[in-house]
Description:
Layout: H1 11-44, H2 50-55, H3 59-85, H4 96-102, H5 109-124, H6 132-149, H7 154-173, H8 176-188, H9 193-213, H10 231-260, H11 266-283, H12 292-300, H13 305-324, H14 332-353, H15 362-378, H16 381-392, H17 398-412, H18 424-428
Helix pairs in contact: 1-5, 1-6, 1-7, 1-9, 3-5, 3-11, 4-7, 4-8, 5-6, 6-7, 7-8, 7-9, 8-9, 8-16, 10-13, 10-14, 10-15, 10-17, 11-13, 12-14, 13-14, 14-15, 15-16, 15-17, 16-17
Amino acid sequence: MKPESAPAASTPVLWFFAxxxxxxxAGAVLGFHALIAGVEWLGTGYVGxxxxxxxxxxxxxxxLLGTVGGLLAGLLLQWGRRWATRGPAGAExxxxxxxxxxxxxxxNNRTTLARSAxxxxxxxTGASLGREGTMVxxxxxxxxxxxxxxxxxxxxxxxxxxxxxxxxxGSAYHAPVAGVVxxxxxxxxxxxxxxxxxxxxxxxxxxxxxxxxxxPAPLYAxxxxxxxxxxxxxxxxxxxxCGGIGWAMLDLVARTRxxxxxxxxxxxxxxxxGVLVGLLSAFVPEVWGNGYSSxxxxxxxxxxxxWVLLVLLVKLVATLLSTxxxxxxxxxxxxxxxxxxxxxxxxxxxxxxxxxxxxxxxxMLAVVGMGAMLTAVTHAPLMAIVMVLEMTNQFQLAVPVMVxxxxxxAVSTQFGTKPMYGNPxxxxx
Length: 429
């Protein structure tokens, strides 16, 4: 590995490594997808939608699989921590977001692998968590390994790490521009001239590979929805409500983690979380997985509001249990699920209680709610706006999504709750 004082490489060299980092991140996303499919098949005999897999099993099988998966994930995490302490870098766990903010690329190899393996078991057996967080973690890790051995300066190595994060986000969510905004708004908190071009190149590289090898369609394909005269007013209301729900969700996550934290052994914590989520899934199979299938069903159809409300409440409890128990996984997609269902229910309630107000297609507010809720839990409105529009391809909703995200950010930041990932701007201020 080159010394930290290595001279800065020329711009074309930096761009070359940005391309490689983008390809590695896309490969990490595809590889983790394949591993999830394999474990899912072993446990259920089904590959594809987690909700469809859950519905294909009898209730006792869903409960048992969640229990066994949680216990094994906890045992693996517990063993992995001991394994990590015996390797280089000791017991230190440096999150990829923290590494980007601190200008470091020394991610702990053993910790990363152990946490990724534990996450694989959790998300493949029904935990109500996002699989995308681990995908991005692996993309960042591969980029960090590349940076450590590349003939680059210390600052340029950190640029390559941010490239891996952006490409990972873009690959996982089919939202390459959002991946760029994510690292600039959340990882760095500012626009750095040296960073922008490599990050754009890396995210674009990953997008080309994902669109070519997987599917160029948006992650949440849905019919085009039209604006109505009340759209902006309803977006404002949605932003207010989702801002409050987002704050409450963060607070409940913190309280649940504190409650589970009384159990010191990770295996017992995750096992208990798996038992409880498994029992919930025995009655409501839609709680399985990150919520992607349920969001897709909501955006492509117009399900009854009673079904949406039931799934929202039970899914929220399942997400709190999975996250609170310490299971490794992301909160992005579960947050998007809460936002989409909340927006949809706001539209349905308005139509029923205020029939004089034309809200149009309720799926319009579902999209708006996704952006507002994501803003509320991340305090990153720019990233949320771009991500939701890219994921749904509903760019005609740009203004109402902006209104809702702005209001949600104003509401959620008034209570002092620490946002998901933290926020470098808020920290520095």
